[in-house]
Design a protein that fits this description.
By secondary structure, this protein is an alpha+beta fold. It has 9 helices and 7 strands; from the N terminus they run H-E-E-E-H-E-E-H-H-H-H-H-E-H-E-H. Strands 1, 2, 3, 4, 5, 6 and 7 form a 7-stranded antiparallel beta sheet that branches. Helix 2 runs antiparallel to helix 9. The longest helix has 20 residues. The radius of gyration is 17 Å and the shape is globular. The mean pLDDT is 91.
């Protein structure tokens, strides 16, 4: 059974990634075209925007979308403070249940080097907590790894939403949200990150079980 069936959806949504980029600064423009929309984020300060994919994009379309946004913001003064980040939603709706567990477990095994790539100021950041920062995350993971799909549909968002890998996005979007990347608009860096997360998902499809 596929994850979208566990979540009570009729069919999976197409696309590999959703991306949200938080920016503070001056002269920020509203973007509502070419795959992007602009929303307000109350966690940011001063003049600030969050630029969000309108819908999930295929892996091959991520780089052109980032290049477009960077061009639209070329005249703005961008400030990527410690409050800003890049959130990447990886579409997992078409995974089988055990493949989802494979992906979660593999990520946790290599969380430290992945966090190092995302920026040293992200370690211990209260908006993207690692497993070692908030071991209560295990309270959410344990019943899911015990094969209880009911718990998958009833994840307590308040307990898990600020973890570096946010499982609360499963019910809302059918995705795993990765919150670790610090704020930036470096096309190469963000696509390297999305490539890594894509490879993580594809690896998860090949393993028979987390063990």
């Amino acid at each position: 059974m596929k994850l979208y069936e566990y979540l009570g959806r009729n069919k999976p949504v197409a696309g590999d990634f959703g991306i949200e980029i938080e920016v503070e600064g001056e002269g920020l423009v509203q973007v509502d075209e070419k795959n992007w929309t602009t929303v307000h984020d109350g966690s940011l300060r001063g003049e600030a925007n969050e630029y969000v994919f309108k819908k999930p994009l295929l892996k091959k379309d991520v780089e052109p979308a980032l290049v477009y946004l960077k061009g639209r913001l070329a005249e703005a003064k961008l400030n990527f403070s410690f409050r800003t980040s890049v959130h990447v939603h990886v579409n997992v709706q078409d995974l089988e249940y055990v493949q989802l567990l494979n992906m979660i477990y593999t990520y946790l095994l290599i969380e430290e080097p992945l966090m190092s790539f995302c920026g040293k100021d992200r370690k211990g950041n209260r908006f993207c907590l690692r497993l070692q920062d908030a071991e209560g995350i295990l309270d959410t993971l344990q019943p899911i790894f015990n094969g209880d799909e009911v718990n998958l549909r009833n994840i307590n968002e308040e307990l898990i939403r600020y973890s570096a890998m946010n499982l609360a996005a499963l019910n809302k979007f059918g995705s795993l949200e990765f919150r670790a990347m610090q704020g930036n608009l470096d096309v190469r860096r963000i696509t390297t990150w999305t490539d890594a997360l894509y490879n993580l998902r594809e690896f998860a499809k090949q393993a028979e079980s987390p063990q």
